Amino acid sequence: MKENTILIIGSGGREHALGWKLKQSSNVSQIFFAPGNAGTNQIGKNINIQSENINDLLKFAQENKIDLTLVGPEAPLVLGIVDLFKKNGLKIIGPSKKASLIEASKIFAKQLMKKYHIPSADFMYFADFNQAKKYLLCAKYPLVIKADGLCAGKGVMVCKNKKQAIKFLKQLMVNRIFGQSANRIVIEECLTGQEVSFMVVTDGKNFLSFLPSQDHKRLKDKDLGPNTGGMGAYAPVPFVNKKLIKEIEKNIIAPTISALAKENCLYQGILYPGIILTANGPKVLEFNCRFGDPETQPLMMMLKSNLLSILLSIIKGSVNEQKLFFKSGASVCVVLASGGYPEDYKKGEEIYGLNKIKDKNLVVFQAGTKEENRKVVANGGRVLGITSYGKNIKEAIKKVYQVIGKQGVWFNKMTYRKDIAQKAFLKKI
Ligand code: AMP
Ligand code: GLY
User: Fold this and answer.
1) Is 188 a pocket residue for ligand 1 (Cβ < 6 Å)?
2) Separation between Cα atoms, residue 367 and residue 356, nearest integer Å
3) What HAMAP family does UniProt report for this protein, alphabetically (predicted)?
């Protein structure tokens, strides 16, 4: 392998964790992050180009002879960064603009699933407010309303009754709070069960599965409070046993990859369905066209295989020649967020105690941080993802919480959940 110089696009904990893992490969000599954070600048070099500025990213990659680019967030994928880089002869990991529609359009994803019998909630879709309203007036509740396009995770509402549903519909289609993303909307059946994140790498034909993981989307303990980008994650999920993994691979992953190929939409990259474990088996809630954040943090802690070889096999079409090996045991990531997040919050709080962590089984993946006068300060909603490895989930939980607070890592007004990974001890449905 001669992929010495790597460019990672994005600035979150996910990108820090991917860079941390890639850095362990002897073939990697330099990693650039665009735009990165204070943590990524310690393991590589930050470049001041935003992840959606795909033309400047191309120019940077050409001028700096980047051997391989890895895309973290969905926005540049949906804008067509992979098509642009490939057209210019550059190696890049991620699906094409067309294949990214699996995340960028919920209607595209739902129609694909329906056509190829991939289990998911029953649905209808509408492009007209009055017709959607008419449907909602006679529908059974609860139900779920989703904007078709990208809304940074905020375009979905589980509606308990008619009043709530019509209010949300108005916000989407009349007040246009998410602009064109809600030109069309989906109304779907409300499913119940535990949610699981299931990521695979695929070359469009074969795939390799990461350990199943679980995110914690709500701000507060016991899944209360508003939705966030994710307040913590852990892997593996004990109740997603080998049999259930096989079922997910057979009924969801394999048919989705082959459906996309049949639709002339070859999918190469990371495919990540959000899955709900219902009484009638696992069903897809949504597809993402990238690694999850914060699930990637525990997954990178658990991964034994060389990440660079795995990523390159996506482009070479040789995923079938690779294997993903994981440590036994478990990893837990707890996100420390700025007080007020996901609404307004203050930036600039100094972060204390980062150099107190000496245990090799604890890594602080940084997200919304920046360096200011030689200090690391909070610069976003989700600030840090403290991630532990332990011989089991209990040990990993204990280890991570021991270093959160004034005896370890902290900043003023930080907020975090105290129950990350407790779902591991629940029953699956
Ligand atoms: P999505 O962006 O489609 O994954 O939706 C965000 C969140 O809304 C999911 O993580 C679920 O908690 C919830 N959700 C989405 N679709 C459904 C559904 N059909 N039934 C119940 N909850 C859902
Ligand atoms: N953890 C949720 C996401 O990455 O979309």
Assistant:
1) yes
2) 19
3) GARS
Q: Is the CB of 166 under 6 A from ligand 1?
A: no
Q: 8-62: per-residue pLDDT in tens?
A: 999 999 999 999 999 999 899 999 999 999 999 999 999 999 999 999 999 999 9
Is-cis flag, bond preceding 294, omega within 30?
A: yes
| C-alpha 278 to ligand 2 mean position (Å) | 20
Q: How far does residue 393's CA lie from ligand 1's centre (Å)?
A: 26
- What pLDDT is recorded for position 117? 98
CA–CA distance, 130 with 219 (Å, rounded to integer): 34
Total-model pTM: 0.97
Cβ of 150 closer than 6 Å to ligand 1, yes or no, is: no
Distance CA(246)–CA(320), nearest Å, equals 17
219-240: burial string, b at 16+ Cβ within 10 Å, e else: beeeeeeeebbbbbbbbbbebb
In three-state secondary structure terms, 81 is helix
Q: What are 259-289's pLDDT values in tens digits?
A: 999 999 999 999 999 999 999 999 999 999 9
Cβ-based neighbour number of residue 247 at 10 Å? 16
CA nearest ligand 2 atom 5, residue: 292
Mean pLDDT of 237-260: 98
For residues 419 and 222, is the Cβ–Cβ distance under 8 A?
Answer: yes
CA angle, 98 as apex, 128 and 305 as ends, to 5°? 125
Question: Residue type at 171?
Answer: Q
Query: Given this model, what pLDDT does residue 13 score?
Result: 98
Find the 275 Cα to ligand 1 centroid distance in Å.
Answer: 9
CA 79 to chain centre: 18
Strands (E), 130-252: 143-147, 156-159, 185-189, 194-197, 200-202, 207-209, 214-215, 218-220, 224-227, 232-235
Contact between 405 and 336 (Cβ < 8 Å): no
Task: Give me the domains of the chain, ranges plus CATH numbers.
Answer: 4-94 (3.40.50.20), 122-189 (3.30.1490.20), 193-321 (3.30.470.20), 330-424 (3.90.600.10)
Q: For residues 176-182, give the mean pLDDT.
A: 95
Q: What is the pLDDT of residue 317?
A: 97
CA–centroid distance, residue 285 to ligand 1 (Å): 6
Q: Pick the atom of ligand 2 nearest to 288's CA.
A: 5
